[in-house]
Automatic annotation (TrEMBL):
Quaternary structure, from the entry: Homotetramer.
Record function comment: Catalyzes the hydrolysis of 5-hydroxyisourate (HIU) to 2-oxo-4-hydroxy-4-carboxy-5-ureidoimidazoline (OHCU).
Transthyretin/hydroxyisourate hydrolase domain location: 11-122
Source organism: Sinorhizobium terangae
Gene3D superfamilies: Transthyretin/hydroxyisourate hydrolase domain
Nucleotide-binding recorded as keyword: no
Protein name in the entry: 5-hydroxyisourate hydrolase
GO MF, one example: hydroxyisourate hydrolase activity
Length: 123
């Protein structure tokens, strides 16, 4: 889905807690861009009550082709949410992916439970 005119490219995400059947609110997310093995931190944010970020993680001129990594801080969310103590099974979930088309919408959702996760390129 592209908007009219200009560079419509953007990167978005959302997180669903599949164990509770609800959006994962207040989950910390970081975005990094890679140049070889060097990671540059670009964004830190948290999900809202709908499990989404209030703004795109990248948009417009900041949307460049390259290799990126989203780091979902699931341990902070799962530990208190599930009352599982200080050592949840999942901690930081890194998802490394490529952006080839700077004008496209890249949506990287995370389906999360205390013992597993999945992701895909959404729309």
């Amino acid at each position: 889905m592209q908007s009219q005119g200009g560079n419509a490219g953007r990167l978005t995400t959302h997180v669903l807690d599949t164990a509770s059947g609800k959006p994962a609110s207040n989950l910390r997310i970081e975005l990094y861009r890679f140049d070889g093995e060097r990671a540059e931190h670009l964004v830190s944010t948290r999900t809202n009550d709908d499990g989404r970020c209030d703004q795109p993680l990248l948009a417009g001129e900041r949307m460049e082709s390259g290799t990126y990594e989203l780091r979902f801080h699931a341990g902070e969310y799962i530990g208190p949410a599930a009352e599982r103590g200080a050592n949840p099974f999942l901690d930081i979930i890194p998802i490394r992916f490529g952006i080839a088309d700077e004008k496209a919408h890249y949506h990287v959702p995370l389906l999360l439970s205390p013992y597993g996760y999945s992701t895909y390129r959404g729309s």
